[in-house]
Amino acid sequence: MDREIEKSWGLNDISSQLNSPLGWEEKNNLSDKALISLIKLGDREAFNILVKRYEKRVFNILYLQLGPINDLEDLAQEVFLRIFKNINKFRGEAQFSTWLYRIVLNLSYDYKRKNKNIFSLDENIDEESEEVFENIIPTTEDDPEKTLERMELRIKIRKAIKSLSKEYQEVLILREFEGLSYEEIAKILNCPMGTVESRLFRARDELRKKLIEELKEEL
Questions:
Q1: pTM
Q2: What are the φ/ψ torsions at residue 8 (nearest 5 degrees)?
Q3: 53, 63, 89, 111: which has the fewest Cβ within 10 Å?
Q4: Rounded to 5 degrees, what angle do the CA atoms 72, 134, 166 make?
Q5: Among the residues of the chain, which ranges form H helices?
Q6: Do residues 3 and 12 touch, judged by C-beta distance below 8 A?
Q7: How many other C-beta atoms lie within 10 A of the C-beta of residue 42?
């Protein structure tokens, strides 16, 4: 194996441990690059750890992009299947998460394009999807009234996001819900940081206006 690749992927840091197999706990503490190094050497457990590390983020983005569709779990599996099949093509010039998010967004766009007929702003929102929104609107309250308010807010946010343009949806989801930096988003979307900033500003403004309109209609 090329020495530069070894150094880039951190193989030097873990090569001494490969002679005696690493346990799950040790692997779980490795960086993404080190895990991918093991995956390239045929370590399936390392791949499972990588899936566990990112599966919730993948579900969050797919849900916010597509809603509570029946194919959500299959699409998430397809994301990781594509990663597994193409892992040897990933050279590490960008972070693994950048590559992952790009795959998730592309897959969701492909799905929308192929299933235009099933997407409607009036579709029912799954009110049972507590886990998907766990990180978006975190809570520790047990008050039934407040729980209902949170559920209603989730539905409003989901509908408002879905009504935004593709460009606004992606920057809003990656920045506000995934917490990525402008630089990371620019790499994922392959556009200048200035474009990310302007899109995010407009996306926030559009989302605010739509939520205000929604509240006014209820008064």
A1: 0.69
A2: -60, -40
A3: 89
A4: 50
A5: 3-8, 11-18, 24-28, 32-40, 44-66, 72-86, 96-114, 144-162, 166-172, 182-189, 193-218
A6: no
A7: 8
CB neighbour list of residue 114: distance below 8 Å, 6 or more residues apart: none
Condensed to tens digits (0 to 9), the pLDDT of residues 104-136 reads 999 998 998 888 766 544 344 444 444 444 444
Q: Is the pLDDT of residue 193 over 90?
A: yes
Do the beta carbons of residue 180 and residue 195 sit within 8 Å?
no
Q: % helix / strand / coil in the chain, to the nearest 5?
A: 70, 0, 30
Tokens read off for 11: 């193989």
Dig out the tokens for 163 from the structure: 């009504």
As its CATH architecture, domain 126-219 has Orthogonal Bundle (1.10)
| Confidence band, pLDDT 50/70/90 cuts, at residue 148 | low
Return the pLDDT at 149. 64
pLDDT digits (tens, 9 = 90+) for 7-17: 443 444 444 34
Q: How many residues does the structure list for the chain? A: 219
Tell me the one-letter amino acid at 22.
Answer: L
